[in-house]
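Researcher: I'd like a structural prediction for the single chain below. Treat it as a standalone chain; there are no partners to consider.
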Amino acid sequence: MSEPTRPLPDLDEPDTGQFWRHAAEQRLTFQRCAGCERPVFFPRNHCPSCGGTDLSWEDSSGSGTIYSRTVIRRHGHPFFGARCPYVVAWIDLDEGFRMLAEVVADDPESVAIGDRVQVEWEEHAEGSIPLFRALR
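Model: Treating it as a single chain, here is the predicted structure.
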C-alpha cells in the first residue's frame, strides 16, 4: 500500500494560482495594493481595504510570529491523519499580513503563541507547500 498524498492546490485557479506558482519556486509571496499600499493576503483580485484592483506581487522574507495556534489530534483525511498530532497556526508575517499554515515541530505542545517562525518548504513534483518552523 502506498503512502497517502497531500491534496495539492490548483495552479490554474484565477485568484490563488499565481501564489501557488510562486510557491513552486519556493517563494512566499503576497499582494500589495497600489492605491492604499496595504498588504493583501489571501490572494484575490481586489484590495479588501479600499476595493482597488491595482495589485502587485511581492516576496515575503518568510519570517513571522505565531498569533494563535492549535494542535490537530485527529483528521479524517489519510495524509493529515498520518501526521497527527500537528500544529496549525495563524502567523503574522513581518510584512504585515496573516496566513494560516502548518508549523513543523518535534513536540507540537511546545509551539507557543508569540514564537518566531521561518518558512520552510515541503517539496512535491507538482510544487512546494509553505510550512513554518519555530525558531528556538
